[in-house]
Amino acid sequence: MSEYARKNSRLVALIQFSTDALVATPSIVFAIFGYVVLVVGLGLGHNFWSAGLMFFIMTLPIIIRVVEHALHDVPQEYRDAAFW
After folding, report:
1. Residues 84, 39: contact at Cβ < 8 Å?
2. How many DSSP H helices and E strands does the chain contain?
3. Element (H, E) at 64
4. Which of 7, 9, 20, 74 sits at a 20 to 30 Å CA gap from 36?
5. Is 21 within 8 Å of 1 (Cβ atoms)?
């Protein structure tokens, strides 16, 4: 998003809004969602894989925002040098 998408795109604004909303979501909401969808809905049961997948879903918005801010802070000269 930060490298190739247009800056004023509606899709970029929607993704940024969604990741901001998911970062602000309390972990108990993720836990309830994980229980309902993964354990009950998909029938994965109470195991390591269900918990690991839920932790991945919970931390993904944070990772997205951190990487986006890190890429935004790279100077333009470095980007130009890496391009050639």
Report:
1. no
2. 4, 0
3. helix 48-72
4. 20
5. no
- Tens of pLDDT along 23-35? 999 989 988 988 9
pLDDT score, position 5: 80
**Terminal alpha carbon distance of the chain:** 21
Phi-psi region of 9 (alpha: psi -120 to 50; beta: other; left: phi over 0): beta
d(CA 2, CA 79): 12
CA 38 to CA 76: how far, in whole Å? 43
Are 6 and 12 in contact, with CB atoms under 8 Å apart? yes
